[in-house]
Amino acid sequence: MADSSQTSPDNPELIATRLPGAMSRVLFTSAVAAGTLLVWEAVTRSGALPGFLLPAPEAVAWRLASTLGDGSLIHHTLVTLSEVVAGLAIGLLAGMSLGYLLAKSRRAERLLSPYIVASQAIPVVAIAPLLIIWLGPGHLSKVLIGALIVFFPILISTIAGIRAVPQDLRDLMRSLRASRGQVLVLLEVPAAAPFLLGGLKIGSTLAVIGAVVGEFVGADEGLGFLVNLGRGLYDTALVFVALLMLVTIALSLYSLAALLERRVLAWRETEKSQ
């Protein structure tokens, strides 16, 4: 049997073997970003496109600095971030709760699946105006739009994860007279964790889309509002700044979900290395 200290994720030797791969990814990402900026700068300097269609990188940087300086960018970013996080949390709670119910009850799945699938057949951009009419242009409508778009992937991930639990392990828990709560905590949640965390990574990016769709339809603050404002004023640099912040939010949430996945599923890496 392998020494646990040798296979621990925090083992210095194991970390050292991963460093070259991590460094190569960082270098590759940096090289792609630098190449994109060079091509962008070359296109704008060539005059092939006017500035209101494609602003120069320095124009975007100046607009970023000005919006940071007056505090407007921070305000709108925090508004969108709050909507994204709240929508993601509600979507996770609803998706996991209903997903667990459907995974455990075939009858409930047969009854509710047609309605769930039908709800997903309607584009969010079509539902968003209704929610804003019913709930007003405040934060609640944006949060619910984000929750709706997150709900389905989490639901499917939960159903797949719960049903992927091996039957022999269920029989073992039954033979040990484990309660439903013990089966859930000790067996089903750990076994379904890879599916649930995969759904969380997908949902973290979809929540951003949901919040922005709601802000596009009707809002007076948020990054989606900034995009609409920049479009109306032909201030393309402002649109780029808002998009940059949206990408930053999505990447940050995805990275946090990926970090959580690595931490929670570290035991799988330990088993593979044994």
Structure description:
The protein folds into two domains: 1-48; 53-273, MetI-like (MetI-like fold). The longest helix is centred in the C-terminal third of the chain and has 38 residues, at 180-217. The chain starts with a helix and ends with a helix. It is mostly helical. Helix 4 (72-104) runs antiparallel to helix 5 (106-121), helix 6 (124-135) packs across helix 9 and helix 10 packs antiparallel against helix 11 (236-264). The chain has helices spanning 4-7, 12-46, 57-69, 72-104, 106-121, 124-135, 139-163, 167-175, 180-217, 223-232, 236-264, 266-273.
Mean pLDDT: 85
Find the structural class using helix and strand composition. mainly alpha
CATH structural fold name of the largest domain: MetI-like fold
| Number of discrete helical segments | 12
Overall morphology: globular
Helix-strand topology string: HHHHHHHHHHHH
N→C terminal distance = 7 Å
* Approximate strand percentage: under 5%
CATH class of the largest domain: Mainly Alpha
Poorly predicted ranges (pLDDT <50, ≥5 residues)?
Answer: none
What is the CATH architecture descriptor of the largest domain? Orthogonal Bundle
Total count of domains: 2
Number of strands: 0
Topology, please?
Elements (H helix, E strand, L loop, with lengths): L3 H4 L4 H35 L10 H13 L2 H33 L1 H16 L2 H12 L3 H25 L3 H9 L4 H38 L5 H10 L3 H29 L1 H8 L1
Helix pairs in contact: 3-11, 4-5, 4-7, 4-9, 4-10, 6-7, 6-9, 7-9, 9-10, 9-11, 10-11
